[in-house]
Specification:
An 8-stranded parallel β-barrel has the order 1-2-3-4-7-8-9-10, surrounded by 6 helices. Strands 5-6 form a two-stranded antiparallel sheet. The chain is globular. The chain is built from 8 helices and 10 strands. Helices cover 37% and strands 16% of the residues. It is α/β, with parallel strands linked by helices and 298 residues long.
Amino acid sequence: MRLSTVILPVNRWSEGGRAQWVRAEELGFHAAYTYDHLSWRTFRDGPWFGAIPTLTAAATATRTMRLGTLVTSPNFRHPVTLAKDLISLDDVSGGRVTLGIGAGGDGFDATVLGQEKWTPRERADRLAEFVPLLNRLLTEDAVTQEGAFYSAVEARNIPGCVQRPRLPFAVAATGPRGLRLAARYGQAWVTTGDPKLYEAGTPAESDAALRAQIAKLGTACEAIGRDVAELDKILLTAFTPDRSTMLTSLDAFVDFAGRQREAGFTELVLHWPIADSDFAADQSVFERIATEGLAQLG
């Protein structure tokens, strides 16, 4: 199992932003991700910086740690422009980028460009077109494709990614269509758990739901003749019923992580602590978990 972190882009680079990414690498995290939003939930009226510029800066401040988004969505992205940004970011980082991608939600990003909120089905329709086109754009020198939602006309992406045939996709999905996309195009799969259990569920119910999601991923892979073991299985934490206790001590984390490893997860992602927020945590405990947590699993 690998341990990673997600650093929300709420600090100016010169006022703590850079230091967080550097410290994440010092602590030995496998990867550091950031959210790809224009604003998000309770942080909407405070500082919030762009994902791609932030990751580009992080790429120049770190040497070995992987970097990525958790997650990018079609809410305000287009495959053609995103592909160009990703190829550039992959180059700057020396091939250390993972693209987390999903259908997105109905938050602030859903209407910021003036469109009406898409239904869950419309978001799934768009993602089903977005991912295959992005796959082509990142693996072919020139792409022309006309779609219902996204088109490309002689889109050039030379020299392509440093990582071959392209940078890896970590597809966030829980429904059947998204899981099929993960099975076909993903090098990893991402979940936050069952949202219906967020408020009133128990850890045991959440663990059962996560196991069921992994089983459904296996079914989607089997349907196309792919071994589910080829995909990394990533749990973005802080959205399950035990979110308030898992970072309170090293023992609490080890208990949580052990259950998730047994379920089949290969990577856990912890939110970098932010005071006075849903992601508040003791920094010293967090750093001890980063350096000792996985070793305690045996």
